[in-house]
Every structure is written in structure tokens, then in C-alpha cells.
Amino acid sequence: MMSLCDKTAAELHDMLMKRQCSAKEVLEDVVKRAESVQRKLNCYITYNENSLKQAEEADRMLAAGEGVTMLTGIPIAVKDNISTKGLRTTCASKMLEKYIPPYDATVIERLKAAGAVITGKTNMDEFAMGSASDTGIFGRVVNPIKEGFSAGGSSGGSAAAAASGAAVLALGSDTGGSVRQPASFCGIVGFCPSYGSVSRYGLIAFASSLDRIGSFGKNVSDTYFLHNIINGYDAKDVTSVRKNFSSELKDTLNGTRIGIPKEIFDSYMSEEVEGCISNALRIMEKSGAKLVTVSIPSVRDAVKAYYIISSAEASSNLARYDGVRYGHRSADASDISELYKKSRTEGFGVEVKRRIMLGTFALSEGYSDAYYKRAAVLRSRLCREYDEAFQHCDIIASPVYPDASISFSEPHKLTDLYSADIFTVPSSLAELPAISIPCGKSNDGFPVGLQLIGRKYDDGTVFNTAYGFELSGGTYGQY
Ligand code: GLN
User: Fold this and answer.
1) Domains recognised in the chain with CATH numbers
2) 3-state SS track over 47-89
3) What whole-number distance in Å separates Cα of residue 402 and Cα of residue 423?
4) Residues tagged active-site
């Protein structure tokens, strides 16, 4: 019989409603799995000591029929840059190694109100900067499919946990692809919502104009249930928007116009990735979708603009870690400026320092016109090109990542890792919703993700198209 931890949230919800199992039993099975895979995958940083209490509370809600939602009693893992009251939140950084937030992020408040059970906090790249979950102080996250390979990043811990049964669902953050890319590597679904549709209150900032909280699930509907609970207006986030989100999944492939941006398909991707994506497009066409070629020329320069803008914002956001208010404080500083310098030198890792330096440079007097302003202009142009493309299509399809995996044993050049973000950063800069859904496998058995990008605030069409693809038998992930 299939273990409880390998079931989808929808299946577990059904069983919980029929009293075929309790939330406590589901949690115990997930914890057992987490403990057995943790050594190999390293997906968790901290377990939630209150999870059992939360499961008991869920059982009470279920028994009383009070406030029951799709997530009541469902174990969910949370990326370690999302604040959890009383539960250590480190951003995988020495800077926050001992930080215990005094409040919950809005998404956590919503999960708790829905009766969800938080399993723990997941491993990631330091301050969410990276693509392989290998820049944090707690070590790398290993892909559940094969040892020696990355689970992707920066939300690698959340993706690996949800893919391996160490959680049923998971939350991540996506600034330039960090939910979509690890979902692709681990063979699950990862959704990055329209900017502003999920509150960022309590998400520890990397690049505020790009950061979003995204959802992971084994399939489209599970991911949708999670997003449905965390999504919605929040007065505590000034960039939060009031938008209605459809409450039902529909298969809408028939008649959907799928845009194929020629500049994306002219870019480098491995043969295997190309094969899987072409096959996915054929499947969607057979199910009634229409493929149309569109043009978004600025995607070619999107990586450069992304690294300038995100690093500029990071340099400003991370200025708060000064060793005075909270975070790591150097033990041997003789005056205040030495305290700043030593605390930051000791507290941040190499990648974070690199981004702070790059960002400070791009914003400095005499250079900001040449770098930051040009990147901002490119960002506006990119948005206009997407608007124009969406006159001719409802959804834009693309790969998630040029390769199916990242090996830990082949040292990768940093600039190669940055340029490989080419397929995910354009929609991040344009604030658009996007999903990664498994669509095939490489020769070595690594899953390959298809990315579907929607119009701003049209998150519903992204889900519906992905659902249509899943129903037409398109998925070849883990499940
Ligand atoms: N790989 C990208 C970066 O390193 C994406 C990170 C993210 O989305 N958090 O910036």
C-alpha cells in the first residue's frame, strides 16, 4: 500500500474527511520519511517542534467540522526565508543562524488559520541567491532522483521535501526562478504568482520588486490548493493587490492560443530539454491548443538587467544587517565602524557579498546611469513586448532551464549559472505569473519542466492551461 506521505493533498483531504486516517497519522508518516531522507537530501534546516500540536488541532477542527479547508491536516514545508513566529528562520546564513522571528509572515498566518501543519523550515541558497541550493551554511540540497546532483535552487529544500514525501506541499520564494527551476529538477509542479497577488509580509527580502512567494505540489491541483489559501490582498504589504482569483480549476486547452517566443527557442538549450518541450507543445496542440509564434526581443538581455536590478535591491535590503539590531554580531570589534565591518564580513557568505558589491557598484554615483537606469529601461521595454505578445496569445510557453540537472562534481562557472536563468528571469522582471510542470525526462532520468507564463494577474489561466496539459497526459515527472 502507498504510504500516506506519498499521497497528494487532495487524496489525503478525502481520507481525512472520511476518517480513514487522522492528521496526526499523516504527520507521523511524513516525519518518518523526512527523518529517513534527511541524511541524503539535506532538505530541512529546522523541524517544527509544534507540528504535532498543529496536527492535533487539525484533528479537532475535522472532528468538529469547524473551518475545515483543503489544507486542514496537510503537512507543509516552508522555505527558511519565510518568517515563522518562535521557529528559527535562518535564510541559510550565518547572519541569521540564531534568529527567531517574533511574528508570522502573512502566508504562515493563513496556513495556520486553514488548519495546515508546518513540518519545518527548508534548506536553500543563502538569502535565496543561487540556482543549486549550494551557497548556504547548512550544505547543499541533493536531488531525490540522483545523488551527486542538485535539487535546484534557491528553493531546493522545499522542492526536494515535496518530491520525496518529506512534506506533502511546500512554500518557496521566487525572485528570478527559484520555485520554477527546483520544481523542474525534482519532477514536481512549482507556481510563481503575479507580483502582488501573494503578500510578501514576513518574507525576508532579497530583491523587493521581484520577490514572490510560490507554491510546490506533486500535481497542478495540489499546487493550486496551496496557492488558493495564501493568495489575496494584505494591508501589511504595500505592493499587495486586490484581484479575484478563480476558485475552480478548468481544463481550458481547447482554443487556448499558446505563444512560442522565437528568441527563447533560438537560445541555447540541451537537445533533451528541446525534445521534451517540443513533445509537450505537440500534446497541447493535439488537445486543441493553437500554437502561435511571438516575439519578445528583450529576453536576450533580461539576465543582465535581472542581475543588476536584483543585486542593487539586495545591496539596499541587506544593509540592515549591521550587527547592532539583530543578526550576527562580531565578538571582537573595538568601535562601531569595526563592528559593522566585522559583523558583515563574518556573517555573509561569498555569493551574498558578491551581490552586495555588484549592487552597490551599479547604484553608485557616476555609474547608476550606465547600469541601474539602463536595466530599468530594459525592464519597461520587456513589459511592453510581453503586452504586445499577449495580443496574439493567452499563454507563453518556454523551457524552465537549459539543462535537466546541475551536477555537483562538474564545477560550473558562475557566469554560466547566471546566464542559465535566461528562461525564468524575463517573467520575473515583467511581474507575470508562471508555472513549471513536468513534461518529460532526460536520458539520465532527470525530469524536465515546461514553463507556462500568463498575463499579469491572470494566474487562473496559467493554472487552467497547466491542468489541461496534465489531463492530456502530458506529465512525466515523479508522479
Ligand atoms: N538564480 C537566481 C539568482 O541567483 C534566482 C534566485 C531566486 O529566484 N531567488 O538570483
Assistant:
1) 1-296+398-479 (3.90.1300.10)
2) ECCCHHHHHHHHHHHHHHCCCCCCCCCCEEEEECCECECCECC
3) 8
4) 79, 154, 178
Q: Which residues, 6 or more positions from 44, have their beta carbon under 8 angstroms from its beta carbon?
A: 34, 38, 77, 119, 120, 121, 122, 123, 157, 161, 166
User: Burial of 2 by CB count in 10 Å (0-12 exposed, 13-18 middle, 19+ buried)?
Assistant: exposed
Q: Is the pLDDT of residue 302 over 90?
A: yes
Other beta carbons within 10 Å of 86? 13
> What would the pLDDT profile of 53-91 be if each residue is shown by its tens digit?
999 999 999 999 999 999 999 999 999 999 999 999 999
Q: Which residues have C-beta atoms less than 6 Å from ligand 1?
A: 128-131, 154, 173-178, 206, 310, 421
* Pairing outcome for strands 169-174 and 75-79: parallel
In angstroms, the CA 380 to CA 363 distance is 18
pTM here?
A: 0.97
